[in-house]
Please model this.
Amino acid sequence: MFTTLTTNRYRLSRNLFVLLATALVLSGCATYSVGVATVEQKTSDRNVAGALKSLDELKLTGADQMLYYLNKGTLLRLQGDYAASNQQFDSAKRLMESLSAISVTEQAGSVAVNDTLKAYEGVGHEQLLVYAFEELNYLQSGNIDEAAVEARQFDIKQRLVAGKNPSANYLSGAFVRYLNGMAYEEAGESDSARIDYSKAIEGYKAQSSAGGFGVPTALKSDLDRLENPHAVPRKSDTRNNGEVVFILHNGLGPSLAENIIRVPNPNPQHGTALLSVALPKFVQRPVSVARFELSEGSQSASSELVENVNAIAKKSLDDRLPAITARAVARLVVKDVAAKKIKKQSEDAGAAGMLIGMMSDVGAAVSERADTRSWSLLPGNILLARLSLPAGTHNLKVAFYGNNGSILATRDYNAVKVMAGHKAFVSDYYLKAN
Model:
């Protein structure tokens, strides 16, 4: 009898420890959320150095390591430190590959506790955009050969991602294909450029229902030019021109909020007091810039939408939600059975048993959390403008327009070098009026 009571007390103590440990781990989630909000605010204030410091202070490791690489790579890119940015993106890509081999093992933990225990590997559209930003880093730093290498690597990655998501036509990688074509042209690989321009057009058509827009006009012109190389240019005086390609990271992409559904258990003595299911909820953040005009003197070009991150992220969540819901329901069953066992073991433990029973209810409730992690610093969308200019050094101006047609702000980009027959890549970000 003494041995049985001792064993039961040991089991109860162990269960209490596990529940308290779970509560402590989960309390760290709030700190992460607050920290990411601070990073985003400092980025919005164009205080990238401060945002980098705040990100480092979060000490994202373990299951959140990918988030550190993705967000730090983005911040370094916005800061103009392209080489350091690509180091982070390379680390992210290596981690993606390693996580794909252990995801089945981690899945068991997500069913038992919650999805936040899984190491974050990035959803499909995020994994594709890593290649876009790394390629842009190479193009903006003038490392054309490496940009072309990145384009070839993307071709393999996109086919793998699309193969795992055969019904997700929004994972065409159309925007990255568009960049690939420009990178190949800069590298003198016109045939490869023609192929990727063609794939980009196919991709934009395939994802139009999810993205909400069609094929960019300039892309159509690129393919027509390469398919008809002997056509006479419309203006002979532009033969020796170069081109400025201006890319805007517009706003912040969506975040995910937690939607918790709790209902009383009709039989709380034989399970948890509350039946809880937590699911992620899509939250779209405002995007200030509707369009922009890139100009020098009397020459100007209007922007085109080339990537709608918000729309694609929403479609991605919609597609994943049935599986997320199934895991949440499975967790509900697992936790209800576990609570029943704990309460059964505590029946003869008096006041301590009642405490353990209460703690089992609390532990089951607080441990049910939705996975609201995402690549926080992705833009809401990406706008691109292309302006043909004579070879030389140019002082550019960009006017940003809001949805009501009013000018939000203007910015100057001085001493941009343009070479005949080549593209000069320039980028910036806009999160709020400043």
Notes: The first helix runs from residue 2 to 44. The chain has a mean pLDDT of 84. The first strand starts at residue 241 and ends at 250.
